Amino acid sequence: MEVLLFGIAKDIVGKTLYSLDDGMDWPNSVLELKQHMVEQFPEFGKLSSLAIAVNSEYAADDVSLKQGDEIAIIPPVSGG
Hints:
This protein is of the alpha+beta class. Helix content is 22%, strand content 22%. It has a single domain (2-74), classed as Roll (Ubiquitin-like (UB roll)). The chain has helices at 7-13, 30-40, and strands spanning 2-5, 17-19, 51-54, 57-59, 71-74.
């Protein structure tokens, strides 16, 4: 499973694409993916909000994930 990273999420992980190893338990939902990212990269836990897009649509925590989904982590954005 591959996850595209943007903004501060990219800075936290250190790259634009994060791959979950084949030997890992795959997250079954958006919530499980968020939990995995916080476990692997504790800085994610400090973000005030974190949007996940699955197949180009924003996804709630209960959305199921499957192999082949296009997943993106979109951190909070500020601007003026």
